[in-house]
Amino acid sequence: MVCEKAPGVEIDFLNDGLKYFIDGDIVSTHGRTSLGADNGLGIASILTILSDNSLKHPEIEAIFTSSEEEDFSGAANLDGDILKARHILNLDHCVENEILSSSAGGITVTSTKKLNKIQNDDLKPFTITLSGLLGGHSGEDIHKGRGNSNILLFRFLKYIDMPFDINSINGGSFRLAIPRESSITIGIEDETQLLKKRDEFLEILKLEFPKVKDLDIKIEKTSANYYYNNQFNKEIINFILLLPVDVVFLSNFFDKMVDTSNNVGEIYIKNDNLVVISDIRASYDSQRSFVVDKITALSEILGFNYEVWGPYYSWAFKEDSPLRDLAQEIYKDIFDNLKIVPIHAGLECGFFAAKIKNADIISIGPN
Questions:
Q1: What are the residue boundaries of the Peptidase M20 dimerisation domain, all occurrences included (predicted)?
Q2: pTM for the model
């Protein structure tokens, strides 16, 4: 699962169980953490079928993979030759009246820049926190205009138009999640100007995001033992604001479908290096490569190093799919508004299609 929590929630995802609530037909965490229900229920559904000796069915092969939400390493290392099946039901969706017919591929670019640590006791340290955005899944929600707190925070830094030194940055929690809160600690000389600019910029954001009621920019006095020299501030701000973000290309095949996007999911400082992580999704490898070329070219121009990693396959739409036709015939009696849809998220179907010749694949929720 994608391990994400709301601000103020204390949890160790490696060791703590999730606190969940049941409201009628809905199981949720009441917005405290992510739930991971699609993957958990998918595993449970497969195990239930395998353990029920009363069911009549042809031979079944069950595939359980690891790290689907991280780097697809389970599916990537699967030996397709061990599988006999050519009809694959992928249990990874959360809308019960949809049958998925294709999915995006993706890749990640990590850009870094070495910073120089300095001492400057004349500056006043403040922590700026931009919060209250809705966040979401960087594949399924990227087209909904929810805002990216990393981008908006650096827009604000550009807007204040005053010199400052950086102490620390903490933007976003996971590259696959649209960041909803970002903070930066800086040192400045003029507190009054900073507060004035904050009020102005907050009004701008409220006009741009009228449905986001909790959007806020907090500025708090803090302490700082060091800063990073502001000689790189212009390059840093320009780099982040010039990155392609959110929807890059819409589909010319599916109506209102995103073909290519980029989520600037994480920005932080580690070992005196600024780290910026961009996660790209694309229906076509050519578009994916185009966005990578944009980011790497920008990195080179503004003096950033970069690493391109974690590629995964797209799952292309097939006009002819007997399995999809059969599922549609079965489910139409259950759902009046059954839909066959693509998805702008990564699925393991891309790896299955690449490894298993002539595979007929659909992805459905574990309903």
A1: 129-209
A2: 0.82
**What are 293-342's pLDDT values in tens digits?**
999 999 999 999 999 998 998 998 999 999 999 999 999 888 888 999 99
